[in-house]
Structure formats: C-alpha cells, structure tokens
Amino acid sequence: MLDALTVAIGVAALALAAWCGHAAWRDQPTKDWHFIGMAVVTVLVLAQLVIGLVKLAQGEKPDEGTVIFVAYLVGAFAAVPAAGMLSLTERTKWGSITVAAGAVVLAVLEVRLYDIWGTAGA
Amino acid sequence: MPDSDTTNATGAATPATADGRKRLVSGPGLLLVWLYGVMVVGAVSRSAFQISTEFDRAPLAYALSAVAALAYAFITYSLVRGGETARKAALICCAAELAGVLAVGTWTLVRPESFPDTTVWSQFGMGYLFIPVILPITGMLWLRKRGEAATR
After folding, report:
1. Which residues contact A22 (CB under 8 A, 6 or more apart)?
2. C-beta pairs of B147-150 under 8 Å, 24+ apart in sequence
C-alpha cells in the first residue's frame, strides 16, 4: 500500500513538474489549474504521511530508522505547498519554474522514501 | 521579458521591498532562494541527526556538513532580507561555499579514508544531484547581475 502510493506520488510529481515546466516554457505564471494540480499532489502526500505514521504505530520498522523516515515524510509533505506559496509572490514564469523544481525535489524525496521504508511492508 | 496575458511589473528596473531595500528574491532569484531553502532543510536536518546520534563515527564529515548547513542558512537569510549589504555578504558566502564544495569534493576523492561517511559536499555534491556545486555559481551570477542593475 505504502509502496504503491510512493510510486504514484513520484509519477504525479514528475507530471506536475512537466506541466509547470511547460507553463514556464510558454512564459506563463502558475494559474488556478496548476494550483489544483498542486493540491491533488499534496492530498496524496498527506495520505502517505498518515499511512506512514499509522504503520509506525502498528509497530512496523523502516529499514533505515524511524526518525529519518518521519523526517522525509514531513519534508515530502512540505515541498510542493512551499513552492506553490513562493510562486504566488512571483507572477512570472520564474514562479512556474520554482514549482517545477519543487515537484522534482518531491520526486527525489519519494525515491529516497522508497529506499528508507525498504522491505518492512509492501 | 515578453509576457502575453499577464500583468508583470517585476523584472523592470530594480524592484525594492516595502522598506526600500533592493529585492533579491524576484525572477530567477525566487528559484535560487527555493533551492537554497531546500539545501538548508536537507543539510541542517541531516547534520543535526548525525551529530546528535553518531558523531563519533565520522566527526570530520559531520562537522563539515554542519558548516555547509550554516553557509546555506546564511545565504538564504541574506537573499530573503535583500539590500546592498546583504547582497555583498551573500556574494562572499557563495564564493566561500564554492571554495568549500571544491575543497571538500577534492578531499573526499583524494583521501576517502578520512571520510567513513559522506558529507553534503562529498564528491562535489553528487548525492544531491550536484546542486551544491551548481548553486553557488548561479548564485554569484545572479547577485552580480543585481549589483549591476543598481549602479545603472
């Protein structure tokens, strides 16, 4: 369950990065539709955070330790909303590029989360 | 920059903050401050965790990570604050950061036995997609450009 969600978020994050990158390429700022996309990704990451914490509460142990796992869960949750808020202050293509960069960071975090969780539970 | 359907006032002349300081976080500066912010979170949390749990395993590597974290935090603060003094301070710190990345990167390649664990700047920041070596260069280019904009 957690692994499937991690992969899904990684793919969604890359799609968001491509979408906002496209907006930047067309010299446009982030628009309402982009923010809806960011919201969808954020809801997915929030679900991952909750499921991860529930699994920890049930006594499952991540391969690389609980502290690192929780730190990465929280970091992944914050990445896209933080970039989205920054893009609100910069209504140019640079706001779009920043959200794209934030989504790439999220994708990298998901790869790390996949490794950190390891084989503890599928 | 040409803009089709958006109102765009930034990028023109020298945007200033509410209290008159020169804005460093506009246009490319926004991407820069975001990447620096990510590096702050990454480096600070990493070094805090390592120093608090297993400092004896690789004291040199963890201390260097902490130094990197401090550099990132200071540059991020300077960029957000804005103004000519902050711009110069950030410029100096970017140069120091680049020197640090190059020195530590070379050090980890020449004497890997000194580093039982990696630092943020090991192998020129390969574990962080080489962002640590790209960031100070783009940072200095941006800060110099903002300086020229002020004197014009």
Report:
1. none
2. B147/B84, B147/B87, B147/B91, B149/B13, B149/B14, B150/B14, B150/B22, B150/B84
Across the interface, of B5, B30, B35, the residue whose CB is closest to A90 is B30
Establish if B52 touches chain A: CB-CB under 8 angstroms.
no
Rounded-to-integer distance, Cα B31 and Cα B26, Å: 9
Kindly report the pTM of this predicted structure.
Answer: 0.86
Nearest-by-Cβ selection for B34 from A86, A91, A108: A86
- Is B106 in the A-facing interface, judged by CB distances under 8 Å? no
Question: What ipTM describes this predicted complex?
Answer: 0.89
Query: pLDDT tens-digit profile of A7-53?
Result: 999 999 999 999 999 999 999 999 999 999 999 999 999 999 999 99
